[in-house]
Design brief:
Elements lengths: L2 H39 L19 H18 L11 E2 L5 E2 L18 H48 L8 H11 L6
Antiparallel strand pairs: 1-2
Helix pairs in contact: 1-3, 2-3
């Protein structure tokens, strides 16, 4: 193996190890930040949610995802099984939903048509569920960074072991014997 290849491999191994350490540390910090942020919110699952979070603190990305799913069920119950796009935009004087502005009750504060308050539940649920789902995603990305960091550490270490180990071309008994034999050959004129 020529020196350029050998030293290039050593440099590559060191760089891979450095990136592996960096990736692992970044992943661990990201995972910790997600969990610390969720703990600060003091979210507790309601008794009707998944048994792994019912009555318990939500402090991991996976638990946040379960809580978001529970919120969706609560919102569907509050809106009689309708999602945002299925609900009328306004309500009439009798409280019935309508998309007709002219048939809508008048909002005493704005003078415009009375908005369907139940529809706004979906806006709030979507915002909160998105934040919780983002926690789940962020924790998964952090885990990926940790796994990739470990892989880079292994590859970088493998490079260095292969290039610096006793079985490399410079260190084998066969290579040393060949060099010794070549050293004792007479020079050809």
């Amino acid at each position: 193996m020529n020196p350029f290849t050998r030293y290039g491999g050593i440099v590559a191994g060191i760089i891979l190890i450095a990136f592996g350490v960096g990736s692992t540390v970044t992943g661990l910090n990201g995972r910790s930040e997600v969990r610390d942020t969720l703990k600060q919110e003091r979210i507790v699952g309601t008794p009707d949610m998944d048994k792994s979070i019912a009555g318990k603190a939500v402090d991991t990305g996976a638990e946040a995802k379960l809580f978001a799913e529970g919120m969706r069920e609560h919102t569907l119950a509050a809106t009689d099984g309708q999602v945002y796009s299925q609900m009328a935009r306004y309500v009439t004087e009798s409280g019935k939903p309508t998309d007709d502005k002219a048939a809508a009750a008048v909002n005493p504060k704005t003078g415009g048509p009375q908005e369907n308050a139940a529809r706004n539940i979906w806006v709030t649920e979507t915002a909160l569920a998105t934040a919780l789902d983002t926690s789940f995603f962020a924790e998964r990305v952090a885990m990926f960074a940790i796994v990739m960091g470990a892989a880079l550490l292994l590859v970088g270490t493998g490079f260095l072991v292969m290039l610096l180990g006793p079985w490399t071309a410079a260190g084998t008994a066969e290579t040393r014997a060949r060099k010794l034999a070549n050293a004792h050959k007479p020079a050809v004129a």
